[in-house]
Amino acid sequence: MQYLLLINEDESIYEGEAGARIMQEVLGKHMAFAEALVKDGVAFSGNRLQPGATATTIKWDHGAHSLHDGPFSETHEELGGYYLIDVPDLDRALHYARMIPIPGKGAVEIRPVWEMG
Amino acid sequence: MSAGDTIAAARPRVIAALAAQLRDLDLAEECCDAAVEALLRTAEFPRDCAAWLFVAARRKALDAVRRRRREQLALGSDSATEGQDMGEVIELPDPIPDERLRLIFICCHPALATEARVALALKVICGLSVEQIARGFVVPEATMYQRITRAKAKVRDAGIGFELPHRRHWPERLEAVLLALELAYAAAFRDAADSEERQLAAEVERLALTLAELLPDEPEVLGMAAMVLLARSRERARLDGAGAMVPLSLQDTTMWDRQRILRGSDLLARAAQGGSGGPYQLMAAIQLTHARRAFEGVTDWQAILTLYDGLLVLRPDPVIALNRALALAKVEGSSAGLAALAGLPGERLAGFLPFHAARADLLRKAGDFAAARAAIDQALALDPAPAERRFLEAERQSLGEARASLDK
């Protein structure tokens, strides 16, 4: 089964000089995470996203739409990246999701992908 | 044991083994129910009920899987030709493997809401009807049906695994199971639960004891089982002849089930050997201290107060604080109890019936009959269950009489 692991974080922790150091550590942990997936033979993909401020959102309301600057949900924790992994069940997905580094406040949402046919 | 009891005892083992093999909760449940129906129609009750049910349910599962395959073939689906023949997959293991723990962990997965967990466990593992579960939790049947359907859909669509969780994740997974059991316990043993709800209480007890049997080294699991046994020991004393609730302190202890008390006490002693304490052991210890009245004639309220102090540290919860205040009233008098009640978050407890009932009781003991009566009216306004309504109305009436005699 495929699962999308959505990484939502308060990115203010990466600001400034101390933040840059934390980011270096986190990037290292992401590398280690990817290596663990490869070692376990788990098919995956993933990306880091530009900050929420770079987002543009098209909002729809029954046929009418408007453009908004910024992400869809205005919260402190914003979508900062994702992984798509293929594992047998939710417990395996949780096992890997727990390995994703979140140095400050944040959350990893685990969503099964709708299987076609 | 009656046939019904034998079937109820066999069911968790049968459905768990079936679900583990089929990896399909719905199909396992459907086939198990059909097997139970078939069993009830047989002239001669089998010697080994679980084995009989398992063989019958497995045959039905096989039929269902073959039918599905034929339908897929008719539709020209490629997936129908894939995979092995289910006849080989559903081999009859002998003896039936004990997969109950797996099934409990699936039904009580933390990916499900606590309410959904307990509903799913009672439906799938215990085989209670949606109607029975809905009544136990005082929600409309349609709501409960939807809750169970959604929970099953989540198990399927989120891909909740049929493997036993890794040992490392057990604390987290066990907590999810215990919270679900606690919710079931609260529904089955609330003061006003009437005799119709005994079925729920019986199944909660069965589930708690099963878990204690499967995980004999987990102190909190043993604590939970002890708590349920001790609560159930008072089942016959909870209602009077007129169907009114009898509060714990007024119950006739000769009607308590001493065997259950002793079993609960043993479980708690075993839990204590495990070395790690926890809320369920404390709650069971409170129950046990109450139960000792059956043997010692008096209640050690100081011990209960100390236990509540400990519980309040682990769980800073206004309902526990309310019970602590009642214990304090027994130790230091009703005015101390009332003062403690006054310190609780009143607005959070305003809709909680036992808060008003407790206030009424303490106000009455303090001699403030008018205020006690007002508190009872507040409790009655919260739409109590029939047994509790009868109790509160009787209280209200006796308060009226007490007042009348004072006026004379």
Oligomeric form: heterodimer
Highest CATH level, the class of the domain at 99-160 and 168-210 in chain B: Mainly Alpha
**What is the number of domains of chain A?**
1
Q: Uncertain regions of chain A: pLDDT < 50 for 5+ in a row?
A: none
**DSSP strand content of chain B:** under 5%
Number of helices of chain A: 2
Order of helices and strands of chain B: HHHHHHHHHHHHHHHHHHHHH
Give a written overview of the molecule.
The complex is a heterodimer of chains A (117) and B (408). Chain A has two helices and six strands, in the order E-H-E-E-E-E-H-E. Chain A has 117 residues and is of the alpha+beta class. Chain A has one domain: Alpha-Beta Plaits. In chain A, strand 3 and strand 4 (64-69) form a beta hairpin. Chain A is flat and about 45 Å long. The model of chain A has no long low-confidence stretch (mean pLDDT 93). Chain B is an all-alpha fold and 408 residues long. Among the domains of chain B are: 1-98; 99-160 and 168-210, Orthogonal Bundle (Arc Repressor Mutant, subunit A); 350-408, no CATH class. Chain B is 69% helix and 0% strand. Chain B is built from 21 helices and no strands. In chain B, helix 11 runs parallel beside helix 13 (279-291). The N and C termini of chain B lie far apart (59 Å). The model of chain B is unreliable at 80-85 (pLDDT under 50). Classes of the chains: A alpha+beta (117), B mainly alpha (408). Chains A and B meet through helix 2 of A and loops of B.
Short descriptors:
heterodimer, A: 117 residues, alpha+beta, B: mainly alpha, Arc Repressor Mutant, subunit A, 21 helices
Topology:
The complex is a heterodimer of chains A (117) and B (408).
Chain A: E1 2-10, H1 16-39, E2 43-48, E3 56-61, E4 64-69, E5 77-86, H2 90-97, E6 106-112
Antiparallel strand pairs in A: 1-5, 1-6, 2-5, 3-4
Chain B: H1 3-22, H2 25-41, H3 49-74, H4 86-89, H5 100-107, H6 114-125, H7 130-136, H8 141-157, H9 170-188, H10 198-214, H11 219-232, H12 258-273, H13 279-291, H14 293-296, H15 301-314, H16 318-332, H17 334-342, H18 346-349, H19 353-365, H20 369-380, H21 386-407
Helix pairs in contact in B: 1-2, 1-3, 1-5, 2-3, 5-6, 6-8, 6-9, 7-8, 9-10, 9-11, 10-11, 11-12, 11-13, 12-13, 13-15, 15-16, 16-17, 17-19, 19-20, 20-21
